[in-house]
Amino acid sequence: MGRFQDDWIEQCAAARGIRNRHGIVSALDYLIGEKLMTYAEVAATRPEFARELPQFVAEVRSIFSKEEIAAYLEFFERVLTDGEEAASAVVAGVDDEDDFVDRPESWAEQQRLLAGLKELLLVTTLGTS
C-alpha cells in the first residue's frame, strides 16, 4: 500500500499530461477543481493530510503560473456562486426536502475551502518548511 502523499504526487504528474493533451482548463479543473479541493476537505479533519497540503499547493504552483491559477480561481468562484444560486431557486420550489440533494451548507463549505486554497495558491511566498 502506497503512502497517501503518493496520491497527490501522481495527480500532479497526471495534470501535466492532461495539460499537454487536453489543455490548461482541463488540467486546472482536474488538479485544482477536483483533486486539490478534495484533498483540502480531507485535510480539515486529518492532520497527516494537513501537513502535506502546503507541499501539494507548492507543486500545483510549479505546474501553473500565478496568472493561470488566478484566472481559473475567478472562474471557479463564479461556478460555485452560480451553482449556489441555482440550488437556492430549486429549494424555493421544492415542497419535500428529500427531493433536494445539494444542501446549502455544502455550497458554503466549498466556498470556504476555495477561499483558503485561493490564499495559499496566490500568496507571494509559500512557507513550506
Number of domains: 1
Number of strands: 0
Distance between the termini: 27 Å
Mean pLDDT: 82
Given the structure, what is the number of helices? 5
The quaternary state of the protein chains shown equals single chain
Low-confidence stretches: 90-101
**Main beta sheet strand tally, sense and closure:** none
Strand content: under 5%
Structure write-up:
With 129 residues, the protein is mainly α. The protein has 5 helices and no strands. It has one domain (4-120). Helix 1 packs antiparallel against helix 2 and helix 2 packs antiparallel against helix 3. Residues 90-101 have low confidence and may be disordered.
Keywords summarizing the entry:
mainly alpha
Describe the protein's topology.
Layout: H1 4-22, H2 24-43, H3 47-63, H4 66-92, H5 104-122
Helix pairs in contact: 1-2, 1-3, 2-3, 2-4, 2-5, 4-5
What's the gist of this structure?
The chain has one domain (4-120). Helix content is 79%, strand content 0%. The chain contains five helices and no strands.
